[in-house]
Design brief:
115 residues; mainly alpha; two-stranded antiparallel ribbon; 4 helices; 2 strands; globular
Length: 115
């Protein structure tokens, strides 16, 4: 992994697709930021994901300087207030639930291939 302290605004794709659909229902095109307006570190993502799989992330994740971006943006966060105000859109899946959904899907796929 690269920078475990990088903070990102992680969102659920179906929520974002709903936002896009709502944009298309508007009578005039406009620009919107679709985001959750909260940030979490890559480390937090690893902690939740590995815990969901019953593993300790520290036993499996290593920082490799080759993956650390020279011009890293430490914090990326979006402000979806216009989308909320104009479109009535807001995210429905929070960060922890998102990570757990992703891990559960991967574990189900793994079970299907092992059978």
């Amino acid at each position: 992994m690269g920078n475990l302290d990088a903070r990102r605004d992680w969102g659920y794709a179906p929520d974002y697709v709903e936002a896009m659909w709502k944009m298309l229902q508007e009578s005039e095109a406009d620009d919107y930021v679709i985001a959750t307006h909260e940030t979490h570190t890559v480390k937090e993502f690893c902690e939740i994901a590995f815990a969901r799989a019953g593993l300790d992330w520290k036993d499996h994740v290593r920082v490799d300087p080759a993956f650390v971006r020279p011009a890293e943006v430490d914090v990326l966060i979006g402000d979806p207030s216009k989308a909320k105000r104009t479109l009535g859109w807001q995210p429905t899946v929070r960060f922890k639930q998102l990570v757990e959904l992703m891990v559960d899907a991967d574990l189900e796929r793994l079970k299907a291939t092992v059978r």
